[in-house]
């Protein structure tokens, strides 16, 4: 079983493995630098469906199918699936996965959902209660824009600090300790709210959550950035990444050389019009499940801290003048089991 | 650690305890038969706030504070809190709990959320990874009506099969094996969808999920209704309860005499205008945390199966002509640890 270290961190004993993964993207992702690493890229962002919401569900279907196929498993082999997305009532997941027949545990962590599912999977696998779990999440530019901002037809201008919601899904299949990547530790985040009210500046709203979780993990484990190859946040974008580096610097942690952000990896911000970078629950999930996990499996990356951040607002809370609470969960992946 | 029995059920080894609980309701709940068992009943359904959404968050604050007080604990004693609600992006929970500073794991299981949080808590406590967790959920008639149906000012008529969303919150604090109620087993549900499209008949949409989970639990454990004092669903209401009894009957399980439903317990359907009964994530949570858990602690009930059902639709999915998927998770509470 996982055991607690300090106040927020848990070390796994059996180091559960990520067995396989699947990633799906669309046109903008196909034009980005990570395109060669995706399993499926469909230039048609409707994915053959009649609504954007159904397209998002279709992405989840394809991502989990791909991950299962690569793991050599079928749905009945899974003990449970953790899933969630940004749509109201998480219908991207519930409609995408309803035909699987797998015990379903729905999550809402906004863009931190992938990490939240990995954290919970690590606990359930490490204790031996479960043998195989899956984690999946998604986002779709078009379903997110109309739900959170404006109808696409309105053609609203985006501010420089705004991020581009990825049309993407990432799925991971986890199991007992057999092969890298291994989950060595997890850290569960608290809700942080520094009073940021600009819903077009999510990076600023979420940086304090990433900061708290990362700082606590270093304190709990007595490690520092030098112990890791990569500190990967998702998705702070340009603005939030700078803020995180600055906040960590003040605490004496120089993460600059090790820090990267999924929102900055998925797109080429010089060539693609994504303003402050990518975002959306599918952004860090697809970056993890296309480029990062294979790099750990193949040993190019040995120790990676994956910190997914979620902005826990709603359009209603913004209209009511509220600030934007956020949360960040951390997963320590390693190419070695101990 | 919990170990698997059959395909869907997990037995706990250490039988985690529910240490304390808190329940909050409003005017309609104060007029119902369970009023004497609630911790807090506020006739003012605004709870002193300016919006219904903030009122719902305030209920969560009060419910968790009451549960912590009764447990003799404070927020920093909790290893994590599982929370969710019906509002878009679960803001009832995120805004209600943001000041606690407790590691936060957001759930979306619609009205099954309370059971989902109890299931996950049971796993994390039984393995020894965590020592104390909390589970909380809520619903508010006014925030739900305007989000899912019509603005209250519209004064829409309700159909006979529709249920009344409870203005209520229930919170439970769980810990290691010390006193009853103990969690002896859990069963994680799959998404079921029999094609029901009437969003004013949630009972019919959710009954198949309750049926599958209950049937599987009986099969996995080799038990039957005679082994339990109470089979408590939440919230199938009148229509769904009849359907569940009928579906079980066809499988040879006669649950009629043991079956009750939180949606039928919270209100007096002869005197209160709630049509097919109560519903909402706060309905089964508050019934559990007001009337049921004390009955188990005091030994009036010895073995209770709590099966919370969630309808995994959204207003958008309904508008797009979709049917209503649902899920049900089961928790076996006992007055004895083994």
Describe, in short, the structure shown.
2 copies of one chain form a homodimer. Chain A is α/β, with parallel strands linked by helices. Chain A contains 10 helices and 15 strands.
Could you describe the 3D structure shown?
The structure is a homodimer of 338-residue chains. Helices cover 33% and strands 23% of the residues of chain A. Chain A is built from 10 helices and 15 strands. In chain A, strands 1-2-10-15-14-11-12 form a 7-stranded mixed sheet, with helices on both faces. The first copy, chain A, has a 6-stranded mixed sheet with strand order 4-3-9-7-5-6, with helices on both faces. In chain A, β5, α3 and β6 form a beta-alpha-beta unit. At the A-B interface, α3, β6, α4 and α10 of A face α3, β6, α4 and α10 of B.
Keywords:
homodimer; globular; 6-stranded mixed sheet; alpha/beta; 338 residues; 7-stranded mixed sheet
How many individual helices of chain A?
A: 10
Mean pLDDT of chain A: 97
List low-pLDDT spans of chain A: none
Shape of chain A, please? globular
| Helix-strand string of chain A | EEEHEHEHEHEHEEEHEHEHEHEHE
Most extensive contact: A-B, 61 and 61 residues
**Strands across the major sheet of chain A, in which order?**
1-2-10-15-14-11-12
Secondary-structure blueprint of this entry?
The structure is a homodimer of 338-residue chains.
Chain A (H helix, E strand, L loop, with lengths): L2 E3 L3 E3 L5 E9 L1 H4 L9 E2 L10 H20 L8 E6 L5 H7 L6 E3 L6 H14 L5 E8 L1 H8 L15 E2 L2 E8 L6 E6 L14 H20 L8 E5 L2 H14 L8 E3 H4 L12 E2 L1 H17 L5 E9 L3 H5 L6 E9 L4
Parallel strand pairs in A: 3-4, 5-6, 5-7, 8-13, 11-12, 11-14
Antiparallel strand pairs in A: 1-2, 2-10, 3-9, 7-9, 10-15, 14-15
Helix pairs in contact in A: 2-3, 6-7
């Amino acid at each position: 079983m996982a055991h607690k270290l300090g106040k927020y961190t848990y070390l796994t004993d059996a180091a559960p493995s990520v067995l396989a993964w699947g990633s799906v993207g669309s046109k903008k992702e196909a034009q980005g630098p990570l395109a060669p690493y995706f399993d499926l890229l469909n230039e048609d962002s409707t994915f053959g469906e009649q609504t954007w919401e159904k397209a998002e569900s279709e992405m989840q279907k394809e991502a989990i199918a791909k991950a299962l196929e690569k793991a050599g498993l079928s749905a009945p082999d899974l003990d449970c699936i953790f899933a969630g997305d940004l749509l109201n009532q998480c219908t991207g997941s519930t409609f995408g996965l309803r035909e699987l027949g797998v015990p379903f545990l729905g999550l809402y962590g906004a863009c931190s959902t992938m990490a939240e599912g990995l954290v919970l999977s690590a606990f359930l696998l490490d204790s031996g209660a479960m043998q195989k779990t899956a984690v999946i999440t998604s986002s779709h530019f078009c379903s997110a824009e109309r739900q959170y901002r404006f109808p696409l037809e309105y053609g609203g201008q985006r501010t420089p600090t705004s991020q581009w919601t990825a049309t993407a899904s990432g799925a991971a299949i986890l199991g007992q300790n057999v092969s890298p990547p291994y989950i060595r530790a997890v850290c569960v985040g608290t809700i942080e709210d520094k009073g940021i009210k600009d819903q077009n500046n999510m990076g600023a709203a979420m940086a304090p959550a990433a900061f708290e979780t990362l700082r606590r993990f270093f304190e709990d484990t007595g490690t520092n950035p030098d112990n890791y190859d990569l500190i990967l946040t998702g998705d702070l974008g340009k603005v939030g990444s700078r803020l995180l580096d600055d906040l960590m610097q003040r605490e004496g942690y120089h993460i600059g050389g090790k820090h990267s952000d999924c929102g900055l990896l998925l797109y080429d911000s010089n060539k693609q019009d994504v303003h402050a970078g990518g975002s959306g629950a599918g952004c860090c999930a697809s970056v993890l499940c296309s480029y990062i996990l294979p790099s750990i499996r193949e040993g190019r990356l040995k120790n990676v801290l994956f910190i997914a951040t979620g902005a826990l607002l709603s359009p209603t809370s913004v209209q009511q003048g509220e600030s934007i609470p956020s949360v960040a969960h951390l997963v320590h992946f390693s190419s070695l089991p101990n």
